[in-house]
Amino acid sequence: MKLQILFFAFTFIFLNTKAQNTPLYVGTFTNEASKGIYQLQFNTETGELGNLELAINIDNPSFLAYSPDKNHLYSAHKDGFVSSYKVNKNGKLSLLTRVSSHGKGACHVAVNKSGDKAIVSNYGTGTATILPVNKNGSISEATQVFNKNSENKKSRAHSGAFLNNELYVAYLGKNAIYSYELSDNKDKYEETSKSIVETTGNPGPRHFTFTKDGKFIYIINELASTITSARKVKNGYKLIDNISTLDEKFKDENFCADIHLSHDERFLYGSNRGENAIAVFKRNKKTGTLKKIQNISVHGDWPRNFTIDPTGKFMLVANQKSNNISVFKIDSKTGKLSFLDSINAPSPVCLLF
């Protein structure tokens, strides 16, 4: 009887622990240590991260995105390609297609909610490209290429996102985020504005995030080390504020990278490369205004990307130059971070749950 009780207890603990694990995919810049896209297991109860395995051997998969059903995965490659994969039951990835991004320095890819279109941003050539996604997860050749370069200035497309029937692209070199609207026959996107918000100086918008209702947008500026907040109005967006991501005592060179809202949208987070910190902001959900409440070390060097786990209780940070992923606990009441642990990973530049 005692043996039976022990057996059932062991089985319950084993299955429960397994159920708490969720896969984390890691995009990398490939080199002698890194070979492609890696997979780890993350425990959503304890915050433990481990079991690093190569999911697929492929060159420079620097940014990753899922299909809506998570049966397929997509990666942007800085040599000017986008790849699609089937996600196998064991977590390994099988290559489906590899198509041109119609530019150099592909640095970001995003998929729309219906899963039939992808947008890839090419930093090197400054172009942004629409790619059709097929039902089997494969990608077809480009249907549209947006080129915002001028004779004397590269547009430096850095990220894109779909929102309902609209498309938004951040052009770091143009210091602008352009919006595009799906045409009536749904076959192409048409430009609707030169810039959704007016900018001064050379802020360098890199990544951005929307609230779930689409009423607010937050833009992290790589060169100015600021976050621009704006509110949706009838004819576009109205600027709310620009706020620094840096600690007041930090005076050295810094380049912002990634930005994310907490699951409840009460807090906003941005990464600083140089200060090597995450900036934490408390957000007023009614007005959209931000108040900085914390700058915390990432326990690594060059936090290019970070993500929040599916439960909203943990943050994981990819530190490119120090070859590690740091794990933080998120205080649900205050939004502040506390460091838990770090695990070695080769040249991590993108994290995807």
UniProtKB/TrEMBL annotation:
Identify the InterPro entries for this entry: Cycloisomerase_2, Haem_d1_sf, Lactonase_7-beta_prop, WD40/YVTN_repeat-like_dom_sf
| A Pfam family it matches | Lactonase
Q: Select a single GO molecular function from the record's annotations and give it.
A: 6-phosphogluconolactonase activity
Give UniProt keywords alphabetically: Carbohydrate metabolism, Glucose metabolism
Q: Which GO biological process entries does UniProt record here?
A: glucose metabolic process
List the Gene3D superfamilies hit by this protein, alphabetically.
Answer: YVTN repeat-like/Quinoprotein amine dehydrogenase
| Family the UniProt entry places it in | Belongs to the cycloisomerase 2 family.
Protein's name according to its UniProt entry: 6-phosphogluconolactonase
Native source organism of the sequence:
Flavivirga aquatica
